[in-house]
Specification:
Elements (H helix, E strand, L loop, with lengths): L1 H10 L3 H15 L4 H12 L5 H11 L2 H16 L6 H13 L4 H12 L11 E5 L9 E4 L5 E8 L4 E8 L4 E2 L2 E2 L5 E3 L5
Helix pairs in contact: 1-3, 1-5, 1-6, 2-5, 5-6, 5-7
């Protein structure tokens, strides 16, 4: 919550960011805790948050996978207003460094979360799935007829972790749960 608040401080909290925080709280803590944690979030937004100290404490508590999830959530909050500013991105990069994440992996995660599917957002560890047949391409692609939009799956090899993002209007499910447009999910191994 404190790191999300620190990121929100960069350019102020807008309605989309607040809704994303609320959804994050619902997904991770349950509805009974939303008001309590939103109140904490508001408190932290109004204070000077010591990012280095928070990251030092979290380094002792979180696994590398959990740290990537934190980074992903912060990046999603940053883009929720339509643009992730340079200041916001610099703060998230600093958090990734303080979490001792590989910066090349961080950059791949950053691009995957912030950018839409395009010929510029390709990487050897990303598979793009869409309904457009393609020939002579230099990236991993799976054609799925009648899929409206694109699904991206990013493999993070150092921890054998996968992130999934969908942009489109088809009804897509992950473990029987509907996938929201442009939201990034941890894709469990074996799903």
């Amino acid at each position: 919550i404190q790191l999300l608040a620190a990121s929100a401080q960069v350019d102020g909290v807008n309605e989309n960011e607040r809704l994303l925080i609320q959804k994050f709280l619902e997904d991770n803590f349950g509805e009974e805790y939303i008001d309590k944690y939103l109140e904490l979030f508001d408190k932290y937004v109004s204070q000077n948050v010591d990012v280095a100290n928070i990251c030092q404490n979290l380094n002792e508590e979180l696994t590398r996978t959990q740290k990537v999830i934190v980074i992903t959530n912060i990046l999603e909050m940053n883009i929720s207003d339509g643009i992730a500013s340079e200041k916001e991105q610099n703060l998230v990069k600093k958090i990734a460094e303080l979490f001792h994440l590989d910066l090349a992996e961080y950059e791949t995660i950053r691009k995957f979360v912030l950018e839409s599917f395009s010929e510029d957002n390709i990487h050897q560890n990303i598979v793009w799935i869409d309904g457009i047949a393609k020939a002579d391409i230099d990236y991993k692609h799976i054609f799925r007829d009648k899929l409206d939009g694109a699904i991206g799956i990013l493999r993070i090899p150092s921890m054998e972790m996968y992130l999934l993002k969908y942009a489109g209007s088809s009804n897509i499910y992950l473990n029987s749960v509907g996938i929201k447009d442009r939201h990034v999910y941890t894709f469990p191994v074996g799903s």
